[in-house]
């Protein structure tokens, strides 16, 4: 029997955030290392056959004559001499196929390892190319370590990609794509990072602290234009995918589907080779623990970009549920981000602070102009207005001479009378502005809901054409936020209204394959396929535009942050699902693992029936023999379950991992406490 | 009573006028504006005195203090300007006429505000200033400098001056009557840059309350039977401006436990589903963890609320049940026959344009199922309307859950920041014994409060015993006793800018000196009520004509009366501008006991401290309405709303710019 217990001595709360001081005692009760029984210490030589990978797959194994007390280093030395190839063998090591383990302790003798003549050994490099699917959907080829625990492998990869806090990410096996495609995707562009020199194993000096950058990127990316292109791919958000691409992707249809994905995570305490990952295999790199620590836009360009991409795909593929309004906001943010990232070369955090007199004075001038409302900052035109609109008709509209000044609209009988008192003046500050546009019917209405003590007054303004509409609409939008036409965002507001109108024009015809440039983003690219069915692209446009007006002023970094924040604020955010069978229960249920709690979901009802928080957790145990987890909470609450859709190591690692994440704090050193991670997440091989 | 309002608005209008006329640099610096001003004021004040008798004493005091603070500031500005104009003349005798732009506006084109003489019950009475239609033009480009340095200096000064005027001219001020718990009221002036936190601090000073975090400003709407607490970061003037002229709405100052309950007992909101007994026993560290999780992460987490509420149907008196859900993005409900999954939810309302209010006694008014109702409406809606959403909960706890949840969703992290500030404030107050200097982030830490603790002034607004008349008389006596002895720096020699290095020292010494010395050795002020104030030249002219950054140049007001033309120009020293953090400046420095000394002054009494949020000046004059006890001058930190605004940014920029030279 093998049981690992993870015991919380009631945490003495320290002032640091998170779970507090965590004392974890691990009792190992297992008998796994069964040493080979009574091996006779005969020093007789015997033949050991070793396959040398570098000689090619067809070459027969090299046979070496060894004695049992020869240490592994000696075997390698003999082997290298025998192959007579001169090269750098320093990365090579022996892999014992039957036992699925590396012989990395070169000082250990064959006897100590328990190797006999029947052992099939492979001599191969520890670092091999791996195809890595990034959160942004792009595949990267790079050298990964196949011999160290996945946790370390991920650390290496993240350091290479310049992602801080690698403990939040991990690797998982991709979902098999359906093979009915016409091999079109085989030409998929793969970015190659295999040239990056391997940073020789100073893993322990890996620090989460801020990397130094050259030209705004890590040194190894500054070497060549190709490398710079890779860095750009990593650090700049991808344009919105074509709707077909979204539709083609696998989408989990239920909680159980989502639970299956979590069965694919690799074991962090074992190496890639041990988990059957071969050279050039494909793996996904994803954020696994949804506690994003210490995000610092200045240093986390790649991390933020990839996080955004993962969030975006989670939304588009309905991996996480949201409401329609939220979907429109996500759509608007995506639109804005893609627009801004095309105009900004690099992801720079633009600070709004004015640090110069000139710029300050300049904006003062604008301000003053706005207030003194010079004639140029005024709109005057003939428009139609309607106060008691009957839907769908253009009746009830009357024509007046309109003047837009500051944040108010006033109207007169005619242009001639505009010197005198207006018939009415409407202050738009605080009002709601909504478009009512139909390009095909040339209908350009602006719907205004103007707050007054008695309630909201509904007023429609009808414009004659697109140009007029864009100007007045932009004016209304700004005025509703208390800004005048003199505000420097006025022109860009007009621009975005134009481009949304353009979207409405082109959408119906466009076929989303063309890479989305600014003018022709298909709004179906911004929302999940559910809304492709529900709305036509041109119906979506005004709704996204509506949400867009609240985010249009954000800088790129702010917009990305906002996207991530809105994602984090969704009720289901951060939940990883596993189908489990609770002890004593006859049906499958779902366990949701969140950064701060576990939840139990009844599959029949689809409802959360119970919540347990980690800070009430006293200990958890894993019985590796019957693959069962037992958790004890304060107040004598005990739960136990076996895992159905994932190995219990995965569940154990999730819980231990979140406990680990909560122990991070600024006061502690910058260095990642790898040992603690393994203590909390390791299986019975741990320690 | 109406004429009081009218008077006030007139008065304020005058000040505005003054401000504006100051904006014209072409105004002959000689005696003209000052004389005007004096005439106006003395008239104004005599009249005022009579009608003001009817006001409550303390109200009057407070208000007057505010007004005078304003006046003083204006005068100082004037003085500064005169200096600014004068000084160049010695050096650049051939100074060309001021740039054209400046002379465009004739002085005082300012229309007096129409003074909507609102009924006395309305607390918001006067929008004091009108939109400044005639802003001073941008800083003049000075021509023909004789010395480069001086030119640069002058230019910068003018820019600064222009900006200040600009700022002043535009600031909207309201006179607000705040009702206390005990039925009394306080009247104070609030300008549009002040947020609720600052107003609360101001009230703390005036009431000597214990400053705990529950103290709130609330607005009530009797017509709709609504009330809500203002959030501390909210601007006060804006929502008040939405009130109608004849509104019966009121502003209350009271303790509202629910305001920050979520930070005191987060478990009741974030773990509301758990049983109550478990929640009661929750450990402090678990509370702390909850706050960390929900308010300190990258994103603010809204409590996960879901439940059946009663919704009043539009235009009807019937209430319908629906299953509502609160999300960060708004309130949703589950349509009939649909599941609770997010994608099926229908958006009931988003929070961008609405505030949440508690409804009072809706059972009677709207036949609500219970009295635990809350309301969502646009702040500008003041009467019944179909655009108001009425919701009714089964019990008080649910109602508080929802209202708090909505506030978290609407205000996000500001709420937590407000709480932390309020907590700090409360903590400081309980320990302040030795601390009379306010930290720069906390405007106006009350120094008078120190006394509040000692006597039995629990929630101190005991009506003041002194007669009103003396007070106003006092007021009339502009010039406070010559305070030569308190102002350490000797009068500077007129023609020269003070040596820069002396400045920092000075500014720091000023706050201290008057505070301790003044009250003790002051002779009662001369009773010069009807006369023009004698220019108290000598003492006030200390050589720090430059103001701390955000304020008006505080050359002693006396200088403003135009007698002295030889004031030193603003120091050309580039360093002279301290960085924006407002410096404490004294108001009410003089606080002499009024001539007819009233009964032994109860120490804590003079709650009402003159408040000139944005431009406290170091003037002795400010004191006027000081009741006898106000011997401790109040330490006032200005910079109210001005702190992080555009103007101060500009100041910083300017400073930097100059540093570069």
UniProtKB/TrEMBL annotation, chain A:
Record key words, sorted:
Cell adhesion
Q: Which SUPFAM superfamilies match?
A: PH domain-like (SSF50729), Second domain of FERM (SSF47031)
UniProt xrefs under InterPro entries: Band_41_domain (IPR019749), FERM_2 (IPR035963), FERM_central (IPR019748), Kindlin/fermitin (IPR037843), Kindlin_2_N (IPR040790), PH-like_dom_sf (IPR011993), PH_domain (IPR001849), PH_Kindlin/fermitin (IPR037837)
Q: What's a Pfam family this protein contains?
A: Kindlin_2_N
Does the record bear ATP-binding in its keywords?
no
The molecular function terms of the Gene Ontology recorded here are: integrin binding
Give all residue intervals belonging to the PH domain.
Answer: 378-481
Q: List the record's Gene Ontology CC terms alphabetically.
A: cell-substrate junction
- One record GO biological process: regulation of cell-cell adhesion mediated by integrin
Which parts of the chain span the membrane according to its record?
none
Q: Does the keyword Oxidoreductase apply?
A: no
Q: Which family does it belong to?
A: Belongs to the kindlin family.
Q: What is this protein called?
A: PH domain-containing protein
Source organism of this protein record? Echeneis naucrates (Live sharksucker)
């Amino acid at each position: 029997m093998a049981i690992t217990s993870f015991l919380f001595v009631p945490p003495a709360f320290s002032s640091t955030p998170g779970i507090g001081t965590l004392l974890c005692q691990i009792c190992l009760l297992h008998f796994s290392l069964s040493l080979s029984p009574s091996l006779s210490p005969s020093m007789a030589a015997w033949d050991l056959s070793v396959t040398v990978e570098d000689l090619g797959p067809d070459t027969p194994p090299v046979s070496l004559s060894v004695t049992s007390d020869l240490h592994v280093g000696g075997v390698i030395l003999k082997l290298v001499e025998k192959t007579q190839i001169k090269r750098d063998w320093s990365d090579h090591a022996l892999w014992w196929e039957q036992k699925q383990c590396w012989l990395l302790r070169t000082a250990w003798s064959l006897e100590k390892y328990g190797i006999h003549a029947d052992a099939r050994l492979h001599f191969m490099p520890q670092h091999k190319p791996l195809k890595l699917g990034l959160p942004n959907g792009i595949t990267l080829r790079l050298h990964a370590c196949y011999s160290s625990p996945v946790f370390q492998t991920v650390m290496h990869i993240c350091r290479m990609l310049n992602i801080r806090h690698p403990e939040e990410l991990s690797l998982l096996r991709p979902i098999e794509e359906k093979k009915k495609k016409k091999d079109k995707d085989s030409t998929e562009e793969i970015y190659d990072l295999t040239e990056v020199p391997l940073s020789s194993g100073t893993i322990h000096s890996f620090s989460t602290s801020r990397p130094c950058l050259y030209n705004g990127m890590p040194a190894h990316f500054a070497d060549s234009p190709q490398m710079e292109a890779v860095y750009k791919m990593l650090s700049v958000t991808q344009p919105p995918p074509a709707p077909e691409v979204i539709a083609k992707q696998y989408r989990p249809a239920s909680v159980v589907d989502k639970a299956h994905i979590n069965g694919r995570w690799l074991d962090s305490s074992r190496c890639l080779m041990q988990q059957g990952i071969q050279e050039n295999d494909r793996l996904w790199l994803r954020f696994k623990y949804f506690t994003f620590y210490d995000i610092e836009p200045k240093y986390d360009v790649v991390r933020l970009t990839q996080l955004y991409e993962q969030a975006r795909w989670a939304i588009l593929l309905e991996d996480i549920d949201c409401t329609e309004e939220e979907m429109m906001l996500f759509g608007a943010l995506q639109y804005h981000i893609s627009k801004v990232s095309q105009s900004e070369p690099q992801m720079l955090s633009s600070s709004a602070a004015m640090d110069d007199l000139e710029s300050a004075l300049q904006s003062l001038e604008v301000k003053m102009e706005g207030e003194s409302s010079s004639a140029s900052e005024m709109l005057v035109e003939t428009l139609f207005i309607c106060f008691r609109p009957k839907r769908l008709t253009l009746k009830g509209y009357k024509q007046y001479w309109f003047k837009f000044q500051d944040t108010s609209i006033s109207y007169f009988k005619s242009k001639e009378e505009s010197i005198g008192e207006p018939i009415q003046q409407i202050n738009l500050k605080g009002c709601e502005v909504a478009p009512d546009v139909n390009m095909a019917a040339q209908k350009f209405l602006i719907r205004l809901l103007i707050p007054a003590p008695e309630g909201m007054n509904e007023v429609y303004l009808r414009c004659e054409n697109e140009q007029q509409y864009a100007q007045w609409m932009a004016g209304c939008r700004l005025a509703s936020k208390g800004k005048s036409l003199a505000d420097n965002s006025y022109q860009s507001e007009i621009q975005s209204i134009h481009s949304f109108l353009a979207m409405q024009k082109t959408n119906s015809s466009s076929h989303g394959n063309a890479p989305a440039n600014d003018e022709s983003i298909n709004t179906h690219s911004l929302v999940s396929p559910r809304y492709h069915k529900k709305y036509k692209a041109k119906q979506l446009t005004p709704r996204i535009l509506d949400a867009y007006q609240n985010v249009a002023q954000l800088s790129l970094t702010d917009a990305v942050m906002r996207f991530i924040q809105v994602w984090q604020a969704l009720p289901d955010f951060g939940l990883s699902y596993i189908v489990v069978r609770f002890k004593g229960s006859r049906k499958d249920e779902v366990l949701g693992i969140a950064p701060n709690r576990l939840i139990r979901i009844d599959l029949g009802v689809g409802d959360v029936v119970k919540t347990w928080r980690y800070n009430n957790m006293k200990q958890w145990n894993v019985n590796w023999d019957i693959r069962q987890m037992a958790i004890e909470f304060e107040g004598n609450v005990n739960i136990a379950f076996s895992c159905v859709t994932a190995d219990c190591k995965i569940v154990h690692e999730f819980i231990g991992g979140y406990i680990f994440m909560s122990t991070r704090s600024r006061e502690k050193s910058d260095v990642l406490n790898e040992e603690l991670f393994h203590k909390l997440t390791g299986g019975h091989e741990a320690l | 009573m109406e004429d009081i309002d009218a008077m006030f608005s007139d008065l304020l209008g005058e000040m505005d006028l003054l401000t504006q006329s100051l904006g014209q640099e072409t105004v002959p610096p000689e005696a003209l504006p000052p004389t005007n001003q004096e005439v106006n004021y003395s008239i104004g004040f005599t009249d005022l005195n009579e009608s003001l008798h009817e006001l409550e004493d303390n109200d009057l005091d407070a208000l007057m203090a505010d007004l005078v603070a304003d006046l003083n500031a204006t005068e100082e500005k004037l003085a500064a300007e005169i200096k600014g104009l004068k000084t160049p003349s010695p050096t650049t005798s051939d100074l060309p006429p001021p740039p054209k732009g400046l002379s465009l506006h004739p002085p005082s084109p300012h229309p007096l505000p129409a003074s909507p003489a609102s009924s006395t019950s309305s607390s918001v009475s006067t929008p004091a200033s009108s939109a400044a239609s005639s802003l001073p033009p941008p800083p003049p480009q000075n021509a023909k400098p004789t010395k480069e340095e001086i030119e640069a200096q002058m230019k910068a000064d003018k820019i600064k001056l222009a900006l200040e005027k600009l700022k002043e001219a535009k600031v909207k001020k309201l006179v607000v009557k705040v009702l206390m718990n005990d039925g009394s009221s306080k009247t104070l002036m609030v300008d549009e840059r002040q947020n609720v936190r600052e107003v609360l601090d101001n009230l703390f000073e005036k009431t000597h309350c214990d400053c705990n975090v529950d103290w709130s400003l609330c607005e009530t709407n009797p017509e709709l039977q609504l009330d809500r607490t203002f959030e501390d970061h909210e601007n006060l003037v804006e929502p008040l401006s939405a009130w109608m002229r004849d509104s019966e709405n009121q502003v209350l100052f009271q303790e509202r436990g629910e305001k920050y309950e979520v930070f005191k007992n987060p478990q009741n909101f974030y773990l509301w589903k758990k049983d109550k007994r478990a929640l009661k026993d929750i450990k402090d560290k678990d509370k702390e963890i909850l706050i960390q999780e929900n308010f300190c992460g990258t994103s603010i987490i809204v409590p996960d609320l879901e439940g059946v509420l009663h919704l009043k149907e539009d235009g009807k008196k019937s209430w319908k049940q629906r299953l509502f859900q609160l999300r960060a993005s708004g309130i949703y409900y589950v349509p009939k026959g649909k599941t609770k999954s997010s994608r099926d939810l229908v958006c009931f309302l988003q929070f961008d344009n609405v505030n949440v209010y508690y409804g009072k006694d809706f059972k009677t008014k709207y036949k609500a199922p219970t009295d635990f109702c809350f309301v969502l409406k646009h702040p500008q809606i003041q009467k019944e309307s179909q655009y108001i959403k009425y919701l009714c909960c089964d019990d008080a706890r649910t109602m508080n859950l929802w209202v708090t949840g909505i506030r978290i969703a609407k205000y996000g992290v500001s709420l937590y920041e407000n709480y932390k500030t309020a907590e700090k404030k409360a903590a400081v107050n309980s320990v302040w014994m030795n601390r009379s200097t306010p930290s720069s982030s906390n405007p106006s830490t009350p120094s008078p409060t120190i006394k509040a603790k000692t006597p039995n002034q629990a929630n101190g607004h005991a009506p003041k015993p002194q007669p009103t008349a003396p007070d106003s008389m006092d007021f009339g006596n502009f010039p406070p006793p010559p305070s030569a002895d308190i102002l350490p720096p000797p009068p500077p020699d007129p023609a020269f800018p003070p040596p820069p290095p002396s400045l920092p020292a000075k500014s720091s010494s000023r706050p201290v000196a008057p505070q301790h010395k003044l009250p003790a050795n002051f002779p009662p002020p001369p009773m010069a009520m009807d006369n023009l104030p004698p220019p108290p030249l000598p003492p006030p002219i200390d050589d720090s004509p430059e103001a701390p950054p955000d304020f008006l140049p505080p050359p002693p007001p006396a200088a403003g009366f135009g007698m002295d033309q030889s004031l030193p120009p603003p120091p050309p020293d580039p360093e002279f501008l301290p960085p924006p953090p407002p410096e404490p400046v004294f108001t009410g420095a003089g606080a002499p006991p009024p001539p007819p000394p009233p009964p032994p002054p109860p120490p804590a009494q003079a709650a009402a401290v003159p408040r000139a949020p944005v431009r406290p000046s170091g003037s002795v004059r400010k004191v006027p309405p000081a009741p006898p006890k106000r011997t401790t001058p109040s330490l006032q930190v200005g910079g109210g709303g001005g702190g992080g605004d555009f103007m101060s940014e500009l100041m910083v920029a300017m400073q930097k710019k100059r540093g570069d030279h």
